[in-house]
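Your task
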Amino acid sequence: MTNSRPPAGPRVAVVTGAGSGIGRAVVRQMLANGYRVALAGRREAQLLGAADGHPEALVMPCDVTRPDDVERLFAAVIRRWGRVDVLFNNAGVFGPAASVDEIAVADWESVLAVNLTGSMLCAAAAVRAMKSQEPRGGRIINNGSISAHSPRPRTVAYSVTKHAMTGLTKSIELDGRAFGITCGQIDIGNTATDIMDTIGVGSGALQADGSRKVEPMFPVEDAARAVLLMAGMPASASVGSVVITAAGMPFIGRG
């Protein structure tokens, strides 16, 4: 039997990749809405900027590809607040533009290490905490991508990790049922962040037919609100999948 009693006091969230982009926007939304938030990422200065001195923010430099770093992150959260209610698995890299016959093995392994193994390590630590706390349970939100549905050209490593993220999400959701742990995935398309600049969305992104097209984008704060909606659902509800894109972006019917 699961324990559906809500935790006492503010809910505790861990956000990876918290120093910039979607992670930073989610941190700001959560803090503004009464969450206690642990900010994880490799660049401490960016994490401190995202936290902006908020008294309920815990800045934790962390490389999610390193198991010891991940364990230290969650141990610090438990020491400070006693529990973990939400994990937003957001840390990720796009990797080099390459097709399967071009990508170097080292680049392939680097993208998988951050996007997939890092997400698994953080989810594992979160699940262990959620199983052992009282009341037990919690929610994991994995940041997938539109590329989990429809890849862009020359993004083989990134696209593979985002398809695999869907399997990770479903497995966590299934295995967590008996413990009151839910897991969902948000697939975001063309929110206005630095990663969009790297693939030329604002200046001309490569399309499936070889052409380049300027694509619409939408504010990162709107994507963060969607994450906050998922995080704030009651324990009796599981949001398995959310797709949010810039209106008019080439996703349905891409190419």
Summary: The radius of gyration is 18 Å.
